[in-house]
Fold this protein.
Amino acid sequence: MQKNLNIIMLAVGICFVCSCSSQKQVDSKSKVETSGPTSSSEHILGNNRSFEVVDQNTTGTGNHRYLFYDNNQSIIAENYRWRGDSEWHTIDIDLDGLYEVICNDQFEDGAERVSVYRDRNGVIERGYISEEYICSLLDIEQISLPGNLIEKYDTNTNTFFVVYDDGVGKRVEASLGFSNINYLEFSEFICL
Amino acid sequence: MKVICMANSDYSWSDVLAGNGTLSINGGLAYSSGVLSLQTFLHNIGYNIAPDGQFGNGTDTAVKQFQNELGITEDGIVGVGTATRLNTVRSSQYYTVYGKRLTTSQWGQSNILVGNFTDTNLLSRIIFAEDMNSLDAQKGIAIVIKKRKNSNSSLYMESSSSYPNASAWARVIGKSGAYSTANSGNTNARTPRRGLRGYSSDGYVDPYWKHACDTAISLVNGSSFSATGKKIVGTTITNTSVTVSSGTSDAYYYQCNFTAYTSWYNSGLIDTSVVPIAFTSQGGTTVICKRI
């Protein structure tokens, strides 16, 4: 694995987002991208874990797969971006004092999805927003074209923003909290 | 005196099919040959259920999922409507071979790239989930997959050295960042609703699901097929028809939705060496880009 690529440093700024409805203060860290050396930040996903982000793509043609290596050199997250820079945030979404990693993924077929990474008892889990929940919320039968559904983490509102266009004149939007995420153990796979 | 029987144990599968009774969780847990048939048929088309002849919570869930898959009322009651549909689809290859329900831990790139799926089963799921509203778009999507496989390029597929147990098709589908529907979170590929738009005349098979399966079969066995769409100039879909074929040796394709194509085009990310082709349906537009 070549790791002398784009290395992205963590957590330089800290901002606070206040949800007036819940009165819960959520601590969020923003990222700064750089080509400098590996940086670290404690308590990311627990276990004093820090990480660095490496673009696996060496061809310069797009199809970026950004891999998140922790300080044990294990892959703990990944972020797909068909074009452009990585998009991720470290947010304590369950208010347990540890930051989860939220990635805004962009696939080559045009779909944009959110993935959430967390640590549960030493096991990294990856979560996706339940599509069944999105369908019920937006009152649609099914997502018949994956690219018509856009999911993004919105730093301004500290929510997941979803929008769906059914292609026949109906466009619906919603902001979601963090409770309808289906988590599974994260099975890394590495392209050699 | 006429006695009305409500228990599941009173009804055979034939009784239910004839409209002489229903099966449901309210019919009790006593063994029923009708329930055993119901469970066996659901199991054989991919529902996670162990046939034991007792209508419990697992059977109730499976029945509701089946009713959802076919777009009928999800009441958990197996009457003549549900039974007739199940009795029809239980012998259909579009249910018994393709598209069986998977859990989230059974789907996703990590499963695809270790070779957990047959090629036709994998391809049918992706072709269907990428566009469930246009037959031509499904063929266009399949053509893109074939061109990518034929390219044997690391731009379009994972390597055989990294994934020795995955077929070339699986390495195309499992290419990181390529197909969002290969993601474990995707519902339509993991649990395709195989009968949602199906009627009795077509065996309760959704025509787009059937077409996706047939197209996947054609891909794998090498049969040639073509798709006709509209040429895109800039970001305008013209009236000029363009036909693409799976049987030609022309170069690689991309596939995306029109919104993303437009955004990328306006950002200068779609280079001038491609011919974009639109496949528009009632649900939107899928774009494939042919390299020249």
Remarks:
- Chain B has twelve helices and five strands.
- Residues 7 and 28 of chain B are 6 Å apart (CA to CA).
- The first strand of chain B starts at residue 226 and ends at 233.
